[in-house]
Amino acid sequence: MSPSSLPYYVEPLGSHDRAQFTCGIPELDQYFHKQIGQDSKRNVAAPFVMVDRESRVVGYYTLSAYALQGPDLPPALARKLPRYPLIPATFLGRLAIGLEHQGQKLGALLLLDALNRSWKNADVVASVGVVAEAINETARKFYLRHEFSQLGSHPGRVFLPMETIEKLFR
Questions:
Q1: pTM check: above 0.85
Q2: Are strands 46-52 and 57-68 parallel, antiparallel or unpaired?
Q3: Going by DSSP bridges, is the β-strand pair 87-97/129-133 parallel, antiparallel, or unpaired?
Q4: How much is the CA Rg of the chain, to the nearest whole Å?
Q5: Poorest-pLDDT segment among 34-38, 74-78, 83-87, 139-143
Q6: Which of the two residues, 81 and 1, has the higher pLDDT score?
Q7: pLDDT digits (tens, 9 = 90+) for 20-33
Q8: 40 and 79 Cβ atoms separated by less than 8 Å
């Protein structure tokens, strides 16, 4: 199936019209309007956008490399890993759906796309799991509903082991 035959599809951020997007969270909107392009150019974040058939942005997320400290990992996973000072992970820094598309489960689809990309690339750039930034309590509950768990001493961060992600896609 070609992307144009689907109602929505996800692609890397390009020359998309970012000015029209709003999710209702000023920090996420401002980041998308003013900072995301620079982060992409500087290789600080890899941004992806969900677009409709007319290439209008419906939502977005960013992925980056991340390093966890052993004590922050879930104890069951930490026991299986070497006691290195830093353990590699993938960071899902931002995820947002535009106001007019909220409530349609598109956030879950964006999350699945981010998890799939993270899993596919874990063989190329090692990663024990995905750490997500929960910008508020609503976001935290969203991630917890999708099997993430609280990340150690970081109240705004949640974690999903690559082992669990692999089960989703195998």
A1: yes
A2: antiparallel
A3: parallel
A4: 16
A5: 74-78
A6: 81
A7: 999 999 999 999 99
A8: no
Q: Which CA distances in Å does 113 have to 37, 76, 118?
A: 20, 26, 9
What single-letter amino acid sits at 27?
E
Quick: pLDDT tens for 54-104: 999 999 999 999 999 878 888 888 888 888 889 999 999 999 999 999 999
- DSSP sequence for the chain: --GGGSSEEEEE--S---TT---S-HHHHHIIIIIHHHHHHTTS-EEEEEEETT--EEEEEEEEEEEE-GGGS-HHHHHHS---S-EEEEEEEEEEE-GGGTTSSHHHHHHHHHHHHHHHHTTTS--SEEEEE--SHHHHHHHHHTT-EEETTEEEEEEEEHHHHHHHH-
